[in-house]
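> example.struct
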């Protein structure tokens, strides 16, 4: 038989193939200076010779108690203690128990005081027995804290387009909405065709004389008229200012020699 682990649940039972703790009860009255032994698991080793049983827990051993050392029995048979500490006790499994697989009561006395101080367990040695009935469901534990959001998965491929559904019936006409604001003026349309001339109206009264218009541009010069008669001589005008001296005239030709004058006195 190979090595197997066994576990227990305090104040209940659990069956697992191999060496299995079915129930665990601490017993005895301890003095204030000592703690009850507590077994947390039992491991069976049948591949070694001799076969061994490891008892794991706390407060399992004492070298100063009245008994001198921890004692262990299985199904009323005292077991030889190979080694012991406060957290691990190793005992030898006798062949009489190995040859008779079944459930055995394990008693461990740590011998820490005059009063009995021990632990009471049920262990399956060898093949496991028939599974017991399922226990009641335990109370629902508190909801754990939410874990972090996982990374976004890759986008899956697009599925095929489904067939178009049937057209729904038209809903009732909604109420008329409010008049919207006046839109911007549209562009001026093309000029329409000229209409036919209407009949001439009656002549209206003469309006008031309008303001004189601006002087028009001078007209073209008319043709020269015939010369009129000479008018009378007008009065002599005032002498004009003396003009600037003219340039010296060219020297005239030499005149003829005059007559000889009379002799002097």
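> example.seq
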């Amino acid at each position: 038989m190979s090595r197997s682990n066994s576990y227990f649940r305090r104040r209940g039972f659990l069956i697992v193939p191999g060496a299995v703790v079915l129930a665990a009860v601490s017993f005895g009255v301890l003095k204030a200076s000592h703690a009850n032994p507590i077994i947390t698991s039992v491991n069976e080793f049948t591949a070694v010779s001799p076969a061994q049983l490891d008892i794991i827990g706390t407060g399992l051993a004492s070298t100063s108690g009245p008994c001198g050392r921890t004692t262990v029995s299985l199904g009323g048979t005292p077991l030889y203690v190979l080694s012991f500490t406060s957290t691990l006790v190793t005992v030898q499994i006798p062949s009489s128990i190995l040859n008779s697989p079944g459930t055995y009561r394990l008693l461990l006395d740590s011998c820490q005081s005059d009063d009995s101080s021990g632990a009471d367990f049920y262990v399956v040695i060898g093949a496991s027995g028939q599974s017991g009935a399922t226990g009641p469901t335990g109370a629902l534990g508190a909801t754990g804290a939410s874990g972090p959001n996982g990374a976004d998965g890759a986008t899956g491929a697009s599925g095929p387009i489904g067939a178009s559904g049937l057209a729904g019936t038209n809903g009732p006409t909604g109420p008329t909405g409010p008049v919207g604001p006046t839109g911007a003026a549209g562009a001026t349309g093309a000029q329409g065709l000229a209409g036919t001339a209407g009949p001439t109206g009656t002549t209206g009264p003469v309006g008031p004389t309008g303001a004189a218009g601006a002087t028009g541009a001078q007209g073209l010069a008319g043709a020269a008229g015939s010369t009129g008669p000479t008018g009378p001589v007008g009065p002599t005008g005032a002498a004009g200012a003396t003009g600037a001296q003219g340039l010296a005239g060219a020297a005239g030709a030499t005149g003829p020699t005059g007559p000889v004058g009379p002799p002097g006195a």
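> remarks
The two ends are 209 Å apart (CA to CA).
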